[in-house]
Amino acid sequence: MFFKRARKLSVAAHLASLVLEKTPLARRTDRWFAGGVSHDYLETVGGGTLPRTAPGPRHELICGRLHTAMTAGVANVGSTRLLAPRSKVVVAQSTTLCPDLALVTAATGRLWLAVEIVHTGDHHADTVIKKEIYEQARVPRLWMIDPRYDNVEIYHSTPFGLMLKGILAGSEVLSEKLIPEFQFVVAELFAEPA
Prior knowledge:
By secondary structure, this protein is of the alpha+beta class. It has four helices and twelve strands. The longest helix has 18 residues, at about 55-75.
């Protein structure tokens, strides 16, 4: 119990150390991928806002490929809905994140797979802050797609937090047993356009 409380306090202290704007989202203009152009957007962390810069072209290429494959993968899975890229998802009280890809349960709308494509210019928010939030919210699955290294980290939620199940690269296949029709060769995910 002590360690759990200490961990919560350390995450809270870490989040408090960030420079977060206390401007309500309703008074801000959130913009994201629309008509093929990426835009800046905001995420809410503990009531403050975390401004995010527009993802670059490679980020969006990877996101588009992943969404296309996932759309086909969940087509016959009635219990799951695929949200649009960077849709706002409430993961905790006063915390709303915009994962690059999100799968939610059709019955409750609860997030069960979050996919973050690491922003090369601002990786700390994805690899540290958001990962800790997903862990505390006990999101069952998290994929961290890292274009810097062309790999994918797969995490599963356990009673003790997120557990790294594997790091995929090259010819390895990204898949999820709960979505049997989804499979993607990692090298194809990161391939440069022809």
